[in-house]
């Protein structure tokens, strides 16, 4: 009895040293994924007595295995899953044997739950892809294999299930293996194991089956216990994204984070990015104290010999082995949001410990995950996968995903809802020769020297969902110009338009404060306003302008400056009596000689001969509708 504590301690120490294998199951509906995992847990005696009692009771009540135990009920916990006999959400189960610890992700097989499968596969080392022996290699099999390959899982077990239903026929098994090998030749999957089994009967699940004497390989449990996965990690390229600068005292300054790849030793020379300053590692502190070296996926704190300014989001690497530092790259994207993609959204991108803004420059193609065909696509919807070009606001430190999962993956976050919009796997940095996306240095210099934007009008129109124009509202004082202008601004803003309002009184207070109301100064004032409108229109913005602009020649000059295709002339056709009633004091002062150059009194007002819209000031609501209909008809807004 005295040796028992030592035995327990020895057992716990041994258990602590076991390595962990993360695996997932994938397959079509009714291929038996949940049944297989349930059988694996049952036959390896990893189910507690109360679980077994509940399983036997539920099998009789809602099971789908006849008189036998329905092992799928161990995994399918959702009510809808049990009712339909399918997997909808990812179910995780933990168990261990004498050789290894396991975390199993039971992922759904339906195409509509692709994002659920991607979530479960994101951390897996090995994938068990099930095939119904009676159906062979089907579209779902190819889809799941492609997803597994996309996510960089290097080990696959093709579990040919339900062999009992085909009489344990070796020829059926060999035909399926041959078809699967032919399909995977174009995919980068280095290790594929083929195992025939019957999950319901337990054949080749934990013990090799006597029903298939022609099969000389290992059982499923024996294979996953022994498959080598520790060498899958990248121990060559040291990458430590800094998560926290640790300052518990004034005398200590450490940099904490999880090692994504590579090995770091005390005394190694390291470089910090983006500063590119170098120093020497003086101490490495792990979860159990100071260590001489560390490797992935350990979380550590390291101290350096020199005082270097390092912040969260930066990266510590080796000087002779650096990641790519770029703002543009190509990536495979899996759309995870129920809201369809808006390619012109400025997303947040989270890459390791670094967060910045990003937008999608181009969608190269969408992949049909059932046929692996590539199709042109304007935007992604839920569960769709494709290749895109991403541009970030500041450079990221990354490696291709196939080389380093930790520094080659990212997520896009919706800036409004804060939902995860997509997950991405970086393929490579953008090829500078891609002329469709990048202008050459000489082209950029030419555009900048010419005062032209690097953003095209088409890009602005797609971003703002509008085509720029200037709504020029003319009419006498008191004709209702400002009421129309301000009301219209409010409505367009609420509908999502990007709009700026300019009126006579506000612009004169600053832009033309030195000018009076003489015809010459009035013309100069309107010339200045027209140039502002042109600049705003060039930036994709709709302008609303409320100015008397009494002379036809003035309005013609404004139209020429702004551009005829973007100029919309609106005349508030109000009688002088109507205007006097609205601005009685102003007109009385002009008639008494206290105010000069007032159109309609001592200065003429020339009615527009070719106005785009002529409006009655007493019909405010109808006027707004008329302007909105006109904008829509001309595709100004919405675009």
Distance, first to last CA: 83 Å
CATH fourth-tier homologous superfamily of the largest domain: P-loop containing nucleotide triphosphate hydrolases
Q: Averaged pLDDT, please?
A: 86
The count of DSSP E runs of length 2 or more, i.e. the number of strands, is 28
Describe this protein with a few key phrases.
639 residues; alpha/beta; Elongation Factor Tu (Ef-tu), domain 3; 4 domains; 6-stranded mixed sheet; elongated
Could you explain how this protein is built, in words?
With 639 residues, the chain is of the alpha/beta class. It has 4 domains: 16-232, P-loop containing nucleotide triphosphate hydrolases (Rossmann fold, 3-Layer(aba) Sandwich), CATH 3.40.50; 239-317, Elongation Factor Tu (Ef-tu), domain 3 (Beta Barrel); 324-429, Translation factors (Elongation Factor Tu (Ef-tu), domain 3, Beta Barrel); 460-633, Rossmann fold (3-Layer(aba) Sandwich), CATH 3.40.50.300. The strands form 5 sheets. Strands 7, 8, 9, 11, 12, 13, 15 and 16 form an 8-stranded antiparallel β-sheet that branches. A 6-stranded mixed β-sheet has the order 2-3-1-4-5-6, with helices on both faces. β8 (244-246) and β9 form a beta hairpin. α16 crosses α17 (584-591). The N and C termini lie far apart (83 Å).
